[in-house]
Amino acid sequence: MKLATIKKDGIETAAVVLEYGILTIDTLNTTYYQKWSTNLFELISKGQLDNFKNWYQDEIQLKVKKEALIEHVLPFDQVIYGPLYRHPRKIWGIGLNYVEHAADLNEISPNTEPASFMKPDTTIIGPSDTILIPLQSERTTAEAELAIIIGEECKNVSEAEAHNFIAGFTTIIDMTAEDILEKNPRYLTRAKSFDTFFSFGPHLVTPEEIENVLDLNVATVINGEIHRKNIISNMTFHPLSLVSFHSKVMKLLPGDIISTGTPGAVIIRDGDIVECQIDGFEGLINQVKDLKK
């Protein structure tokens, strides 16, 4: 299943992504007398997601003809996406998770434990929103990444168990004020935490839709040109190991996000268009504005 949050009548509401358009959960509730949460974060955090997927498959996909749904479906060209949600309890980021990206920064890729950092939810924007280069930075970068969305509370889980706690995956563009970070590595939180520094969405893709997450290619794209591309299997720390590792640091909660690292960061400037491309996912695209201009 693919899910999204769209803007409808001034409200951000959860929806199912079909091959031919978008079907809001609110419409499903009204049409089929259901009470599913219409907020994607609540759908995950209240433990409804698996039951919703099962209900949708059994009662809608198998029993309802496409023609009966079509009048309720919004065409893609009429859809404005929001971020999947705005207030996760935690956002973990992983630095230097590809050896090649570490070399770009003249750094040594960590090989014993992930280089983790956290970001506030005030960094979150959605597809087509504007990334703002802050007044304090002369060199800000954008980084395409695959993100893991936690589906169930977990603590001290093994790598073998980790897949049981994943709600799905999505596309991310993470930003860094590299010139601030270059001054002192202790400035990492500040360099990562300016408003608009975490673009999130547009689609949550549930695990059964992905044959093997390690086979996915992730690309950072700038103005239509691929800046850097790599395959998930080339990560130093793979997604399941990241879930396991961080669950041993602190309890992971439904809706928590782990952004798994980038194949390459690109310097962004006023007017640029930056994109995260991942195999099988809708592209995540944002424009850039420099507040100093």
Structure description:
With 293 residues, the chain is α+β, with helices and mostly antiparallel strands. The chain folds into two domains: 2-78, no CATH class; 91-290, Fumarylacetoacetase-like, C-terminal domain (Fumarylacetoacetate hydrolase, domain 2). The protein has eight helices and 17 strands. The protein has helices spanning 25-32, 40-45, 49-61, 66-69, 99-104, 178-183, 188-192, 239-247, and strands at 2-8, 11-18, 21-24, 91-95, 115-118, 124-125, 130-133, 140-150, 166-177, 198-200, 203-205, 217-222, 225-231, 257-259, 265-267, 273-278, 284-290. The strands form three sheets. Strands 4, 5, 6, 8, 9, 10, 14 and 15 form an eight-stranded mixed sheet that branches. Strands 7-17-16-12-13 form a five-stranded mixed sheet, with no helix packed on it. The longest helix is centred in the N-terminal third of the chain and has 13 residues, at 49-61. It is globular. The mean pLDDT is 95.
Give the SSE layout:
Layout: E1 2-8, E2 11-18, E3 21-24, H1 25-32, H2 40-45, H3 49-61, H4 66-69, E4 91-95, H5 99-104, E5 115-118, E6 124-125, E7 130-133, E8 140-150, E9 166-177, H6 178-183, H7 188-192, E10 198-200, E11 203-205, E12 217-222, E13 225-231, H8 239-247, E14 257-259, E15 265-267, E16 273-278, E17 284-290
Parallel strand pairs: 4-14, 6-10, 7-17
Antiparallel strand pairs: 1-2, 1-11, 2-3, 4-5, 8-9, 8-14, 8-15, 9-10, 12-13, 12-16, 16-17
